């Protein structure tokens, strides 16, 4: 049943690591980790839902390798990405006798990966960790690149670190347990990679909508590998999000963050907000004469074919604009957006007129 | 009034930075920072006591450079090195409109430096910061090397990061405002550098006890610069405390942490505990036949001449041993100590018999 895995290397000097994508990989966790670090004490951090579905497979594999294994399951959902939960976890690690040689294994979606990664980044000033993402969104985005952290009550991802995993292990099989809505939301980030970096990949997605929606293993392996590869290239050139290169990954995200924030994170899934945000960005780019209406249409058609929303629900343009001025990527009050110039290419554009942003928001 | 400053370079690749030591340096903060980064928004983090004494000088200097400057004073003392205080600070930074280009300036002792550094390391995944240490201990130790963090209720420095400052500015003049007891405690770490790395420096200290106790500027500048230089060399070779090289800086510290922990951090100042800890380590080394009684005597004589304690107050050997087994530097339960082989040279020694440790603790 196990097809060959595909390997993607994230090149970051002495912090380089592999992303391995294949079917049935969860059961290989022990070998994957043991090949990369000495593990005598593993701490699996997961959530209540993933614990039932997948974490036991990971635990069994680690135990076979002879490590002591502890498992901590946090409540499911974004609320666990808080300083309160982090504080509980740090104390739990202390109770478990964790030390600088213990290894954190994050098994779950983006919330679990970000939270567990932040714990790993900060416990005794940093211990090794591995990512085993179990949602499509986490597999193609949040598990790659080393951004970890938690939310403050009034601002997402405001406290965190750059802390690279020693490896990322991806199992396409686990995606079968995702709800249709969650799964589709993850596809938004996949589409994003095509738009910002790879027109050919975008065309591949257009040609494989049925395979994507049917969660076909061969299509998924290829799509996840290419998404990770594209993200890895960007991250390798701008690990700490400083040069502006990594900013291209935020295509649609300034809008998305505002949409999520204004709908209090309960109307739209992140991927859905990204889908809408990409449409806002496309409209803004069109308005500024950077792309033709054809670009916008093609992006919209693919997003719709994948069952993704393209207009925000119940949120006003004024409120969105105000929220955007609060985004931590807004430096000293200047509105900047990642905007396309053609399919497969985007640029960071500064000094955008708020009036144009409002118009783009209303273009929907 | 301003004599020439002495400069020490910490070589850490693209994270290299200068430590500048001189008289009256606080008033030069603005220039020092502006020479190293663009500063439009500075956030001074200090404590209530230092705010009165020194932070205003720093603020005035930054304002002269044209930056917007905010100042946050935390309550004085180790209790501020907590997750609760950190959470308050992150939210305060958010309220002040801090973003990725804001610069944190830590003005205070070790508590302020560790706390402010941790805030800088984690706010929006890391923003630039500068250290302006105002105690002798912070000047020769905690402000150099990038270790930042806070305590958990049951474990010191358990949550943190390695986050290098962009520069460290040291003013010998501020030491005049220290209490005699605090000042002398700082001298323990100075003596430590001589013992672990530089017999000649140790001899210089022996010959300059009067100048040290009199806080003579010329003696202080030389002693602080050499201490920083020695620490910088070690840090450059082992930035993340991984190779074992940086462990030499922990001479006396496994004992000291246990003494501090067992006396609930209110009987001994850190430097006092280090002084006692160095004596414990010397006794242990002597017991293991690694040094002669002469070594122990010479170390004891200098510490006593500087007014430092050499035996712990009101703490039992059994309790200290138990606390040591809890230290985060104890890896998987193995007791390891930094022990001298001669003046100016120490080694990390593993597999120490707990019986020998107890005997060394009772040798006092």
Written overview of the protein:
The structure is a homodimer of 364-residue chains. In chain A, the strands form 3 sheets. A 7-stranded mixed β-sheet of chain A has the order 1-2-9-6-5-3-4. The first copy, chain A, has a two-stranded antiparallel sheet with strand order 7-8. Chain A contains 14 helices and 11 strands. In chain A, helix 11 packs antiparallel against helix 12 (293-305). Chain A is an alpha/beta fold.
Question: What attributes characterize this protein structure?
Answer:
homodimer; 364 residues; alpha/beta; 7-stranded mixed sheet; two-stranded antiparallel sheet; 14 helices; 11 strands; globular
User: Which of globular, elongated, flat, extended, rod-shaped describes the shape of chain A?
Assistant: globular
Q: What is the rounded distance between the termini of chain A? A: 46 Å
What order do the strands of the largest sheet of chain A run in, or round the barrel if closed?
1-2-9-6-5-3-4
Weakly predicted, low-confidence segments of chain A: none
Secondary-structure element sequence of chain A?
A: EEHEHEHEHEHEEEHHHHHHHHEEH
Strand composition percent of chain A:
15-25%
Task: Please give the number of β-strands of chain A.
Answer: 11
């Amino acid at each position: 049943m196990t097809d060959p895995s595909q390997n993607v290397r994230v090149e970051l000097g002495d912090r380089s690591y592999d992303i391995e994508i294949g079917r049935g990989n969860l059961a290989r966790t022990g070998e994957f980790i043991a090949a990369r670090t000495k593990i005598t004490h593993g701490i699996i951090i997961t959530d209540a839902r993933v614990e039932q579905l997948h974490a036991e497979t990971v635990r069994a594999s680690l135990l076979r390798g002879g490590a002591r294994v502890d498992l901590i399951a946090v409540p499911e959902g974004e609320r666990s990405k808080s300083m309160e939960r982090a504080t509980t976890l740090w104390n739990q690690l202390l109770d478990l006798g964790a030390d600088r040689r213990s290894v954190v294994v994050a098994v779950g979606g983006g919330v679990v990966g970000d939270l567990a990664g932040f714990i790993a980044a900060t416990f005794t000033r940093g211990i090794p960790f591995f990512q085993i993402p179990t949602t499509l969104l986490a597999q193609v985005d949040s598990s790659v690149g080393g951004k970890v952290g938690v939310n403050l009550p009034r601002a997402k991802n405001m406290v965190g670190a750059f802390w690279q995993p020693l490896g990322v292990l991806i199992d396409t099989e686990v995606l079968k347990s995702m709800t249709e809505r969650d799964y589709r939301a993850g596809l938004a980030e996949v589409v994003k990679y095509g738009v910002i970096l790879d027109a050919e990949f975008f065309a591949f997605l257009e040609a494989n909508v049925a395979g994507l929606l049917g969660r076909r293993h061969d299509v998924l392996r290829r799509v996840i590998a290419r998404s990770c590869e594209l993200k890895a290239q960007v991250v390798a050139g701008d690990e700490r999000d400083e040069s502006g290169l990594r900013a291209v990954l935020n295509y649609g995200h300034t809008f998305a963050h505002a949409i999520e924030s204004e709908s209090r994170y309960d109307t739209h899934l992140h991927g859905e907000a990204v889908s809408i945000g990409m449409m806002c960005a496309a409209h803004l780019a069109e308005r500024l004469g950077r792309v033709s209406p054809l670009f916008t249409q093609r992006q919209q058609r693919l997003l719709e074919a994948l069952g993704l929303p393209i207009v925000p629900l119940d949120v006003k343009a004024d409120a969105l604009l105000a929220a955007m001025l609060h985004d931590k990527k807004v430096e000293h009050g200047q509105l900047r957006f990642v905007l396309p110039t053609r399919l497969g290419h985007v640029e960071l554009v500064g000094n955008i007129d708020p009036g144009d942003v409002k118009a783009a928001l209303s273009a929907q």
